[in-house]
Amino acid sequence: MAVQCLIVDDNDQFLAAACELLECEEITVVGVASTSAEALRRFDELRPDVTLVDISLGEELGFELARRLADTASAEPPVVILISTYAERDFSDMIASSPAVAFLPKSGLSGSAIRAILYAETAEDGFGGASAAPGK
Asked: pLDDT tens digits, residue range 48-64?
């Protein structure tokens, strides 16, 4: 399945590395953004299948961006995956209360990890064969 991805992170080196990695793993990176405002514009113009949002965007929080992306949704909420170098347990309550479908550590970022999350999300909606989404 072809997957189009928007990556939101304030670290230019990570953005470059993530783009290269995901493109090699057949995830099409349709855009990148470094701020919430830029991410909202890019999301609106690109309508990616999945948006990867860093929890820490400098002075901004990725959790707030995830909420704003969810609020911009018309019929179908966007698929947002929170990413971070921090451990999931450091933000478990905030992750659980966010509209993001999953958390993915940056060290575990891969095309197969993103596809597994998307597959589980689709299955949860009743369109696939798996029964549960990955734990947030």
From this structure: 999 999 999 989 999 99
**Residue whose token pair is 């451990």:** 87
Long-range contacts of 13-17 (CB under 8 A, 24+ apart): 14/54, 14/106
Contacts of 54 (CB under 8 A, 6+ apart): 8, 9, 10, 11, 14, 62, 82, 83, 84
Distance CA 105, CA 131 (A): 23
Distance between CA 105 and CA 16 in Å, rounded? 17
Distance (Å, rounded) from C-alpha 32 to C-alpha 10?
10
Nearest to 33 by CA among 3, 69, 67, 86: 69
